[in-house]
Specification:
The complex is a heterotrimer of chains A (about 80), B (about 280) and C (about 500). With about 80 residues, chain A is α+β, with helices and mostly antiparallel strands. Chain A has 2 helices and 4 strands; from the N terminus they run E-E-E-H-E-H. In chain A, helix 1 packs across helix 2. In chain C, about 25% of the residues lie in helices and about 20% in strands. The chains are: A alpha+beta (about 80), B alpha/beta (about 280), C alpha/beta (about 500). Chains in contact: A-B, A-C, B-C.
Chain lengths: ~80, ~280, ~500
């Protein structure tokens, strides 16, 4: 099964795991979930759309990463998966 | 013109998000030595998205790419598309790799309609020092950064606090830069906690003719900026000279503090004032 | 009803009006303690419970000078549990993570009410989850003194840890195996509690100098150990090396300097955080450059201030608590390192409390809002993580109050629309210094004018708020439940805010 991971669990970073699947599922665990859960989800969804990637399980472990960090870690994880 | 350049590992979000507030005159986003081979893609993506979508940037951005013979070189150049890179820093440089880079940069400029991409060369091998005059003459090169750690490894000698072992290399860089009107940038100092050692090293470099220094930690910047700025005495003198000049516009020559001010000294005073203004010292 | 700072307060409590309302209030004083019998010497804590007939529904108080190394509150808690006393009211001046026995007492219903100025650790968690069946009141250091002297906080028995006690019942914290320095927070308890018990592990014949006057002391208990003086070091006494923290510190010292506040005979106070310590260092550099001698530094005292006193940079130190062992030593040996009681430090009804004599104070915050109200009681989620301590007192008294903080921490901006809990009202907060800019309270037109041409990055607080959002994104607003788990009492005895259970 194709899996890609990128990032780290350091402060201001996030660790993203992407797995091939039969549908798209996004799981987000964040230390700032109370404030930014929706925003993180939107960033993931938008990036998947931009890359036209479907049918992946995305697991995000976030330590307060900014949007561009989340986006770039996701892109790296997806590229590594393929 | 700049006094300090701070190296920041491009795979480190904490440092990237603060890049614009460190007091360095310029930031070197590094894709080479501070990024693990397995993370080159990750670092590139992070830097690309930061430059495209972030909101606060340093005023001067340098990109240290990977050496031309690596598999990463071409992908690194893609970052130029962001149009936010002021200089490309070429590591392990010699005249050959500089020519290769030059060709690729010209292609990029045409393809993406970019302004002329400027280069700073990182001279860190004996070969590079031997070729330094040719390198400094190259039309793209606007500065030379000395990389003494790698150089000393090659020579199989130790770096010391006094720096005698790199006197020759420093001088070669300084002369080549000065003769070609480009900026001579000193090698980083690896002591982060020892302010005295850093100060001595900076003064040493400055007194030989280095115009700037690279830093590997933000806490080094205050000392570096201070030493490579015009001093208060120099600024006071320069202000005096300009004032006297204005009083003596009709006369050809005039004196300040008992010394004749001729054209070279006038130019020196102008340079000092410009630097002082640039660094918000006046 | 809604109080003067726009916060809901239940009708049965006196609502906060303004930070100056105390000027129109009269000082209320109950009678100071008058001891009836000679000081009794007891062997253990349990016997004190018998001797003084300590029973359910009573109020026991403590000080927190041994901080996380305190063993007295722990030992007293054990006895309360063993005797299964119920509905007790505990009033420790602060509560530290090591006070785990108290958490058990709360869960068990032995303790139903708490009055304190700072709250952290297991006890904070347990209260946050709603287990305290009675009231939590969070006060300021000066306000607690006011509450005790006015009879608002009636203490039945004060158990005061005291590093060295003599045969006359006099006590000092200056030396002894568990030395902790000045005992400033305990003075009101000493003078007004119905019964006062000193708990010590070092009994001597006669003390020539003492902070606790035996005339107030009913009993002395000698135990094996009252605590561990290494627990005093709270882990925040090393100055920051983080470049962002250093930038904030440097900019803060710069602002203070530009305002002309560093001049001969100035006075200052800072918090004990890492960034605050760096500020002290930069101010020291400026003082050395300009050859300035300050009159005093005050507050919780650390080695940094002791060094400055020894170098002659300050004439005196006014110490309400020692934050490290260097401070303890200096207090013991240096006549110019003086103790101050919580009352003399920050009680608004004292004639000229030390806090009113400050040229400036540098403080932290967990949140600050667009009205400059500051929260140091709860974190951005609403969990109790601290409390005013002296914050609201010194913020009011100092000529200039500066808050230092990163603009955002782990993506969460520090500037909010409204803080979750108001600890210190915005009228007492003058300047916010962050690594990306400085905001000045618009009420301080004098400061704005002076800093106009300083070259410093001055913004409105709204601009910094927007700047943070442009970097982090706009955070969702935290909803709190309607369940009140505590009250924030302002230094004048009115109520400034409520603390709600986190959903």
């Amino acid at each position: 099964m194709k899996i890609g991971t990128a990032g780290s669990k350091e402060s201001n970073d996030c660790f993203i795991t992407v797995k091939e699947s039969d549908k798209t599922e996004i799981t987000i665990e964040s230390i700032v979930a109370a404030f930014f859960y929706d925003q993180i989800k939107e960033t993931i969804e938008n990036t998947l759309k931009e890359l036209d990637v479907k049918n992946v399980i995305v697991v995000v472990e976030d330590k307060g990463a900014l949007d561009y960090t989340i986006k770039s870690r996701l892109i790296s994880a997806i590229k590594r998966m393929n | 013109m700049f006094r300090s350049l701070l190296f920041i590992p491009s795979n480190n979000p904490s440092m990237i998000q603060n890049a614009d507030i460190f007091s360095a005159d310029g930031i070197i986003f590094d894709l080479e030595d501070s990024v693990d081979i397995s993370e080159k893609d990750n670092a590139r993506n992070l830097l690309m998205n930061y430059l495209n979508e972030g909101t606060n940037y340093p005023s001067l951005i340098v990109l240290r790419i990977n050496p031309v013979e690596t598999e990463f070189f071409l992908n690194d150049l893609e970052l130029l598309k962001t149009q936010k890179i002021n200089y490309v820093l070429l590591p392990k440089a010699d005249i050959e790799s500089l020519k290769i880079l030059d060709r690729h940069l010209s292609t990029y400029e045409e393809k993406y309609k970019l302004d002329k991409i400027k280069v700073i060369v990182l001279t860190e091998t004996t070969n590079s020092i031997i070729e330094i005059d040719q390198i400094a003459k190259h039309k793209r090169v606007e500065g030379i950064l000395l990389g003494a750690e790698d150089l000393c490894n090659e020579l199989e000698i130790n770096r010391t606090n006094e720096g005698n072992e790199i006197l020759f290399a420093r001088s070669k860089v300084i002369y080549a830069c000065t003769a070609n009107n480009i900026i001579a940038i000193d090698t980083p100092n690896t002591s982060i906690d020892n302010e005295e050692l850093l100060k001595k090293d900076c003064l040493n470099a400055k007194n030989l003719g280095m115009k700037a220094k690279s830093a590997i930690h933000p806490n080094q910047l205050e000392i570096i900026n201070d030493i490579f700025s015009p001093s208060k005495d120099e600024i006071d003198w320069a202000i005096k000279v300009i004032k006297e000049k204005e009083k003596n516009l009709s006369k050809g020559a005039f004196s300040v503090d008992g010394k004749m001010i001729d054209k070279p000294l006038l130019m020196k005073a102008d340079k000092i004032i410009n630097k002082a203004k640039l660094y918000h010292l006046i | 009803m809604i109080n003067g700072i726009n916060r809901f307060i239940p009708d049965n409590l006196k609502p906060f009006k303004t930070n100056n309302s105390y000027l129109d209030m009269k000082r209320t004083l109950i009678n100071k303690k008058e001891k009836q019998f000679e000081t009794v010497f007891l062997n253990n804590i349990e016997s004190a419970f018998d001797y003084f007939n300590i029973k359910s529904n009573q109020c026991l108080s403590f000080h927190h000078h041994l901080r996380n190394g305190d063993n007295v509150l722990q030992q007293v808690s054990e006895v309360v549990k063993r005797r299964d006393l119920r509905n007790m009211h505990f009033a420790p001046s602060s509560i530290f993570p090591s006070y785990t026995n108290l958490a058990d007492l709360i869960l068990n219903g032995n303790v139903t009410d708490i009055h304190t100025n700072y709250l952290n650790g297991k006890v904070a968690e347990v209260i946050g989850q709603g287990y305290l069946k009675g009231k939590l009141i969070m006060n300021t250091h000066g306000g607690r003194a006011r509450a005790i002297e006015s009879g608002d906080l009636k203490i039945d028995v004060a158990f005061l840890a005291c590093p060295t006690v003599d045969k006359f019942g006099n006590g000092t914290g200056a030396f002894g195996p568990s030395a902790c320095g000045t005992l400033g927070y305990a003075i009101s308890d000493l003078e007004y509690a119905k019964k006062v018990i000193l708990v010590t592990d070092n009994l001597v014949d006669k003390l020539d100098e003492y902070q606790f006057d035996g005339a107030y002391v009913d009993a002395v208990i000698v135990v094996d150990s009252i605590g561990n003086s290494e627990g005093i070091v709270s882990g925040t006494t090393k100055l920051t090396k983080d470049p962002i923290g250093l930038k904030i510190a440097k900019d803060c010292a710069n602002v203070i300097n530009q305002l002309g506040l560093i001049k001969n005979n100035f006075s200052m106070q800072t918090g004990a955080g890492k960034i605050s310590l760096a500020v002290v260092k930069y101010i020291q550099d400026i003082m050395n450059q300009k050859n300035i001698t300050g009159s005093f530094a005050s507050g919780g005292i650390t080695k940094s201030y002791v060094d400055m006193l020894n170098k002659g940079l300050f004439k005196e130190l006014y110490d309400v608590q020692c934050f490290d062992l260097d401070a303890v030593k200096s207090y013991h040996l240096n006549k110019n390192h003086k103790a101050m009681s919580a009352s003399k430090y920050g009680n608004p009804f004292e004639k000229n409390p030390i806090c009113n004599r400050l040229s400036f104070v540098i403080l932290g915050a967990t949140e600050i809002d667009l009205d400059f109200n500051v929260n140091v009681t709860t974190d951005s989620w609403g969990n109790i993580i601290g409390g005013s301590g002296g914050h609201a007192d010194v913020a009011h008294g100092a000529d200039v109050t500066v808050i230092i903080s990163p603009l955002f921490k782990s993506r969460i901006p520090i500037i909010k629309d409204k803080v979750i809990t108001v600890t210190t009202p915005g009228n007492d907060i003058d300047i916010l210094v962050t690594e990306r800019g400085i905001a000045v309270n618009p009420e301080r037109k004098d400061i704005l004018k002076t800093l106009e041409n300083s070259g410093l990055p001055i913004y409105t607080i709204k601009e910094l708020y927007n700047l943070a959002h442009s970097i982090t994104g706009i955070p969702a607003k935290i909803k709190h439940s309607d369940e009140i788990i505590g009250y924030v009492e302002y230094r004048d005895g009115t109520y400034i805010d409520c603390i709600y259970k986190v959903i």
